[in-house]
């Protein structure tokens, strides 16, 4: 078998294969309308293909088996004059005398757990008013909030209807409050009050690590793709009827748009749940995945396999998939998991093709450098060092993340906010949108302190600061937020960071990887909002977001403007940073902004430029209104940020 994989790896790059089997039309999968239904499958090595039709999404035998017609370029097809909406199907491929059964790689709907595909007339899945659904008119600022469908609404204290907890439908519930108290908003109303602009939703395509027919108590982040173009069924109120998950995901997106947010989809094209069982590799053996010289699957992802994006039909599949989500589901942005395993040509084609019809869709991802067995020479991967090769794509700044709270893999090390003495220069570069040696423009920097991976921000700070008071740890948390919220680039935060989210395992330790931990660990704890300490942190984040939105000088888009308009202040106490930002630039309405970061345990005095300055952010408060007005010099409290705006003369 290993030898076969190696031989096939060579064959897929031959002139014969490339000339005879690269299919360029955009009609693979099923087209189902009132006029009829057409099935098309790309399977170039098949000797024959049969289409099996079923009445249900699982169990029972096919009620009809239909030989498919061989077309050009390795495509097989069958056409019916009937609208087969709701009919389930799979394919039986005969190759070298052996039969292989597979779902459809281009399926748009499926039965429970995705083993059978379903023909669907997508018009019949549209909620009322869907044709008018669109992205809210976008302001100049993008502030991204990462959440998981289930964790956001599972906690009973969130006030969501019992039948919608952990489901797409929870997002359609407006005016939910903490335990129904009518005072503390939860759900989308909570996020509206917080002020974020975009909701990044962790994987919501069909994934394999939760049994859709199982109990609601199962949990997984979902980085395990099975059907790339089908919504996950465990988030639907009914996973057994394929159209339900489609309609309910659309209802969720529609509700999010109506509430004023953009929707960003977390996509995982770099690997699949199980390479050997994945439908493309069943239909075209080993084509979707990279193979090492010994015949094993390449595993730069640490998930068992890497996607061979450099192959023409894999690239086409990825491009078609992203376009489909943007077109059919009105998705406003895409976050690419481990995009460092996908080649730059594929990413550039994705961006170009989607932007032809959706010019404002945003793209970013994890540009870590990883070893992978690329099947062809001459390809670059979409990594941070190759950022200039993908100008329309942004990257998570682990440079800033690790500088703020300490290295992600050495959890007892301190970061800048917790007193490390050697990270000020790194934070300075990140503040200017020039992270490390990979980021040449702030438009390509996603600035953050925490995401779903690794410890929460507060847990990471706590781990590295034994003996420090809770008050000081909260100050460190807030200082982190103040830095990435005022830095040049795109701010991003993990759900719950603004309410001191923590993840504790059964033994009382901090969880670094809660991908399959129970809901008791992963769910947002809405009742923390009853505590004044948590409310204060929430209000601080809310104020930082409002301040950022109010000041255009914090969102410069190129290095030249940054270098011309932001000056780093010299002569300060060790580890203290301060920046003067010009007024008037990029539509900034003030006469200037002055920012101070003091991670030390003692107050620091900083001389201000001439004029009167309104303090809008200090250790405990943040917002757009002046807390006080100062001139000459100012004292910045220990472990705090101070942001000042020059009064109009």
Characterization of the model:
With 649 residues, the chain is α/β, with parallel strands linked by helices. It is 24% helix and 20% strand. The strands form six sheets. Strands 10-11-14-15-16-17-18-19 form an eight-stranded parallel β-barrel. α7 runs parallel beside α8, α9 packs across α10 and α11 packs across α12. The chain is globular. It starts with a helix and ends with a strand.
User: How large is the count of helical segments?
Assistant: 15
Give the strand order, joined by hyphens, for the main sheet: 10-11-14-15-16-17-18-19
Structural class: alpha/beta
Fraction in beta strands: 15-25%
User: How much is the radius of gyration in Å?
Assistant: 26 Å
Oligomer: single chain
SSE arrangement:
Layout lengths: L1 H10 L3 H6 L8 E5 L2 E7 L5 E7 L9 E4 L1 E2 L4 E6 L7 E8 L2 E5 L14 E2 L25 E4 L1 H5 L33 H8 L3 E4 L3 E3 L17 E7 L10 H17 L3 E6 L11 H5 L28 H18 L3 E4 L7 H14 L4 E4 L28 E3 L1 H8 L18 H8 L13 E3 L9 H8 L5 H17 L3 E5 L24 H4 L9 H19 L8 H7 E3 L8 E6 L9 E7 L5 E4 L5 E5 L10 E3 L2 E4 L3 E7 L3
Parallel strand pairs: 10-11, 10-19, 11-14, 14-15, 15-16, 16-17, 17-18, 18-19
Antiparallel strand pairs: 1-2, 2-6, 3-4, 3-7, 5-6, 7-8, 7-9, 12-13, 20-21, 21-22, 22-27, 23-26, 24-25, 24-27
Helix pairs in contact: 7-8, 9-10, 11-12, 12-14
């Amino acid at each position: 078998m290993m030898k076969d994989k190696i031989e096939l790896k060579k064959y897929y790059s031959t002139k014969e294969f490339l000339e005879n089997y690269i299919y360029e039309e955009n009609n693979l999968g099923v087209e189902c309308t009132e006029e009829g239904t057409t099935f098309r499958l790309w399977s170039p090595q098949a000797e024959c293909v049969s289409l099996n039709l079923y009445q249900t999404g699982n169990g029972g035998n096919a009620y009809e088996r239909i030989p498919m017609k061989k077309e050009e370029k390795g495509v097989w097809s069958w056409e019916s004059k009937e609208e087969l909406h709701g009919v389930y199907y799979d394919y039986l491929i005969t190759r070298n005398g052996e039969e292989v059964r597979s779902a459809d790689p281009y399926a748009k709907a499926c039965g429970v757990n995705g083993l059978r595909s379903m023909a669907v007339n997508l018009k019949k899945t549209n909620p009322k008013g869907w044709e008018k659904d669109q992205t809210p008119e976008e302001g100049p600022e993008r502030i991204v909030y990462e959440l998981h469908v289930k964790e956001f609404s599972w906690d009973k204290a969130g006030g969501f209807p019992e039948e919608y907890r952990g489901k797409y439908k929870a997002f359609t519930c407006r005016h939910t409050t903490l335990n129904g108290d009518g005072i503390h908003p939860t759900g989308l109303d909570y996020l509206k009050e917080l002020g974020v602009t975009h909701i990044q939703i962790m994987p919501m395509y069909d994934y394999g690590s939760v049994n859709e027919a199982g109990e609601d108590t199962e949990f997984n982040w979902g980085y395990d793709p099975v059907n790339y173009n089908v919504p996950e069924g465990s988030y639907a109120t009914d996973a057994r009827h394929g159209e339900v998950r489609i309609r309910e995901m659309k209802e969720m997106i529609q509700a999010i748009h109506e509430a004023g947010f953009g929707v960003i989809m977390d996509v995982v094209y770099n690997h699949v749940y199980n390479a050997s069982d994945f439908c493309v590799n069943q239909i075209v053996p080993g084509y979707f995945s990279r193979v090492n010289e010994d015949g094993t699957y390449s595993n730069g992802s640490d998930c068992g396999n890497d996607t061979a994006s450099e192959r023409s039909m894999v690239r086409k599949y990825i491009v078609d998939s992203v376009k489909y989500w943007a077109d059919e589901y009105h998705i406003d942005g895409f976050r690419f998991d481990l995009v460092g395993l996908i080649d730059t040509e594929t990413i550039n084609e994705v961006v170009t093709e989607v932007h032809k019809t959706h010019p404002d869709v945003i793209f970013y991802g994890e540009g870590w450098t990883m070893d992978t067995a690329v099947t062809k020479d001459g390809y670059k991967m979409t990594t941070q060092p190759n950022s200039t090769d993908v100008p329309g794509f942004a990257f998570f700044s682990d440079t800033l993340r690790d500088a703020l709270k300490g290295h992600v893999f050495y959890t007892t090390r301190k970061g800048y906010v917790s007193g490390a003495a050697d990270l000020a220069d790194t934070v300075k570069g990140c503040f200017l949108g020039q992270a490390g040696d990979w980021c040449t423009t702030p438009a390509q920097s996603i600035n953050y302190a925490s995401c779903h991976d690794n410890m929460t921000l507060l847990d990471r700070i706590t781990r590295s600061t034994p003996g420090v008071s809770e008050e000081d740890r909260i100050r460190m948390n807030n200082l982190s937020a103040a830095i990435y919220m005022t830095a040049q680039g795109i701010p991003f935060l993990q759900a719950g960071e603004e309410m001191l989210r923590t993840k504790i395992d059964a033994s009382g330790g901090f969880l670094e990887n809660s991908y399959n931990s129970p809901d008791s660990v992963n769910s947002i704890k809405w009742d923390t909002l009853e505590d004044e300490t948590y409310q204060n942190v929430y209000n601080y984040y809310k104020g930082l977001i409002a301040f950022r939105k109010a000041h255009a000088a914090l969102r410069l888009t190129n290095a030249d403007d940054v270098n011309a308009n932001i000056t780093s202040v010299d002569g300060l106490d060790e580890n203290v940073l301060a920046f003067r930002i010009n007024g008037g630039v990029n539509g900034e309405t003030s006469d200037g902004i002055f920012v101070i970061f003091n991670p030390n345990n003692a107050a620091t005095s900083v001389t201000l430029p001439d004029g009167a300055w309104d303090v809008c952010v200090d250790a405990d408060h943040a917002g757009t209104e002046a807390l006080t007005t100062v001139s000459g010099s100012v004292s910045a409290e220990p472990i705090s940020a101070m942001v000042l705006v020059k009064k109009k003369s």
